[in-house]
Design brief:
The protein has one domain. It is 62% helix and 3% strand. It has a two-stranded antiparallel ribbon. Helix 2 runs antiparallel to helix 4. It is globular and about 65 Å long. The N and C termini lie far apart (65 Å). 41% of the residues are buried.
Length: 274
């Protein structure tokens, strides 16, 4: 007996952003204004700005996968709520949201997480399959370029100096904001690179998988659940992790995002350090 997929009618509100996403964007905007104006505890402002900005990018990343899947033939993504930018609808909010945020806060790297689920029975053609997987990391590339625009235009100059107590001081116009934005741009650069790595279970591996023979696809699929663990071990337990971060700083520098500003932004984000 052959299974015949049945297409469902797209809900009327399928493309309406969810209140959860709107709330995240609102906090991102407000915390950006607070950081710019140095309102209250600026380190908390920077923390909220970077974390919510990263959450927005995670939502857009997964939305791009879902949107590409929708137009490639899988209308069921609308029924699952993937097109409403609601992170709570993802197959694994822990992997898609919580873990990437924790890694950002503690490690300063835009680690990819879990994803939306695409029903590949509706997708006809290997190219469409690959484009669905590529849509997410391409979104991070676009976001990295968007964040880099003010730096490329000559804005965001931050001067660092040592205070009499030996701490790093900042000078210039709205330095905390620009450092926070630099850190957010760096996260997009790292997320773009990591998501394109040809590792089973990551977007890069999923881009390659449709072009493999059925036997290789099965073997690739067996390793997919361990791809994230492999990436984690490579980045945090080997010299490759240091080379990777240095390479990302070089790319960010090519976008005129200063390494020192990135490091200060990530340090400001960790407000609990005092």
């Amino acid at each position: 007996m052959t299974y015949e997929p049945v297409y469902t009618r797209t809900p009327r509100n399928a493309f309406v952003p969810s209140p959860v996403f709107v709330g995240i964007v609102a906090v991102f905007a407000v915390s950006g204004v607070m950081t710019w104006s140095h309102f209250g505890n600026v380190k908390v402002d920077v923390f909220l700005f970077i974390v919510t900005g990263w959450l927005v990018s995670l939502c857009l990343h997964e939305y791009a996968h879902a949107l590409a899947g929708f137009f490639a033939g899988d209308k069921t993504v609308a029924d699952r709520g993937y097109l409403r930018l609601n992170p709570l609808k993802y197959t694994s909010p822990l992997l898609s949201i919580v873990l990437p945020v924790v890694v950002v806060v503690l490690g300063g790297i835009g680690l990819p997480g879990g994803a939306v689920w695409i029903d590949h029975r509706y997708i006809q053609g290997r190219l469409k399959d690959s484009l669905i997987s590529a849509a997410g990391p391409l979104t991070n590339v676009i976001l990295a370029l968007v964040v880099a625009v003010p730096f490329l235009a000559g804005f965001g100059k931050v001067d660092l100096y040592l205070t009499p107590t030996g701490e790093v001081g900042l000078s210039g116009g709205h330095p905390e904001f620009w450092c926070a934005l630099a850190a957010l741009g760096f996260l997009q650069v790292t997320a773009s690179a990591l998501n394109f790595l040809p590792i089973p279970g990551l977007d890069g591996g999923s881009i390659l998988a449709p072009w493999m023979s059925p036997a290789y696809q099965r073997a690739w699929g067996l390793f997919a659940p361990y791809g994230f663990i492999l990436l984690f071990l490579i980045l945090w337990q080997t010299q490759i992790g240091t080379w990777f971060v240095d390479g990302m700083y070089t790319i960010a520098g090519g976008l005129h995002i200063d390494q020192n500003a990135i490091q200060v932004g990530l340090e400001l984000m960790r407000f609990w350090k005092g």
